[in-house]
Amino acid sequence: MKIARLPRNDRTNGWSAVLPARTAHPALQGDVMADWVVLGAGYAGLAAARRLAENRPDETIALIDAGEAGENASGRNSGFAIDLPHNVGSSLEELEGPQRFMRLARFSIDYLREQIETHGIACDWSHDGKYHAAVSPRGVRDVLDPLAKELDALGEPFEWVEKADLTGKLGSEHFTAAIYTPGGALMNPAGLTRGLADSLPENVTFYENSPVTEALFENGVHLTTAQGSLRAPRMILAANGYSEQFGFFPRNFLHLIAHASLSRQLTAEERAAYGVEKPWGMTPANAFAGITMRHTNDHRILIRQGLEYCPSQAVSADRQAAVKRRHKALFDARFPMLPNVEMEHTWSGVVCLSRNSAPGFGKLASNVWSAVCQNAVGVTKGTFGGVLAADMATERDNPLIADMLGLGEPDPLPRRPFLDIGVRSRFAWELWSNRHEA
Fold this sequence. Notes:
Structural class: alpha/beta
Radius of gyration: 21 Å
Number of strands: 20
């Protein structure tokens, strides 16, 4: 089948821009044979390739990606490794799902930390936890109060932070209260993705800048690029929202775009006016109306706000310019003591969601396995999805596979244009009904 839609790197990713220059691995050239192919080099594909190499040290693994490590969606997120669900139920039956997710997420965080320490990956990784914050009293009542009760039921440690203390920790008076949880990690996601890609085992060959233009799945796997072809008997699909281009999950995924901006570094005088030295990460009580923010170790502030339905998975330069202006206004409203700080980088990243928040995981055919659709929690979900897909494919016994399968399968979506009308109507309703959290 011909591949009609390919990812495009617009070279706007701020996380990459603040890192040293990197030389990409060579593109695929000529006809190549391997024992395994992993399609897609985000967190899932990188984890799958590494695990396959560990499980099958005498076999060859070919990892192929349309772009470069750190420039795709995995390198464009907000840089949170999240170990807890934001909202869960309080009955024992409802708590089973969060406990399953926590086992998987904490496995991912430990796994990533091990790779970072083993290979000396420079990605600004720090176990600073995160704040889940509400702007309004209604947000506190509707989101934070139930979350605190649910964390109590799970036996999870947390700290309730009221407005005065929260202002001192975040440097902003905009928020009413937050719940701080210590288990998560923060990082530069482009640095992490680059480091994982550049430290793969010797039996993995990574082909960057090699967009697949045609795929056949008869008598094995045959992928064609502009300059070559790749054949293997078996494949792990890790192309996330582009999976449907290869004939899998044809009507299961919603394609969204998330926008982010990263400020320039604060000067010594601005840091003194800001009054906060420690890095922190904050997620909003409502993801549609609220704002995700970070204060990084190198004294920049990240703003992520704006989630849009985008079936084309592409954003124009004019739209990004409008987003940059919007993010500057949001920054000024939250940090009035920093009026001259500009947004140095503004970028967008594709997000893949399923209707029921289930991943696209498991065996798709006799020789194809998948780890796709991380539902906007890519660092942890992508990592454990990739590892467990490789374990399943190589028949390695791992009890976490049962936890992964317990997350369910993606529900089918309505056909377009009914889907477009429904999603856009739902987004408009979410923004209006949660405007108190803006």
